[in-house]
Design a protein that fits this description.
The protein is α+β, with helices and mostly antiparallel strands and 143 residues long. It contains 3 helices and 6 strands; from the N terminus they run ααββαββββ. It starts with 9 loop residues before the first helix and ends in a 5-residue tail after the last strand. Residues 59-130 form the Thioesterase domain.
Length: 143
Amino acid sequence: MSTATTTLSVEQVQQAFDNSTFIAWLGMRVTSLDHDAQTIDVHIPFQNAFERGAGTRQWHGGPLAAIIDTVGDFAVGMLVGRGLPTVNFRVDYLRPAIDTDLRAVARVRRLGKSIGVADVDLFNAQDALVAIGRASYATLPPA
């Protein structure tokens, strides 16, 4: 990792969220981050637009995947000072998320010169694990 790395604060990550039309639409709010532990915690409120079927109050898998990818990205990105391109991504859906806000907790597993890897746990309001994801992100400086 380069010694010229600049980290991002809670406010800077939130600003990056708010400056993206898509991420802002998701309504994600950074509740905490810890550079030493390499973790970030984000709250996501339920919206009817996220429903799998009208009136079901069940989250569609697409928004869940987008949340996992974004929170993982900024877990690594908060350590290198910017949002990063996703290289690879996977998600496992463990149980339906119905009529609930969500909490995403990401942990950086590797921060390398060219690739960073983060794991993300997605919880419902009762703290039950809804989905897990892992993604890798390009950490090389922009060309």
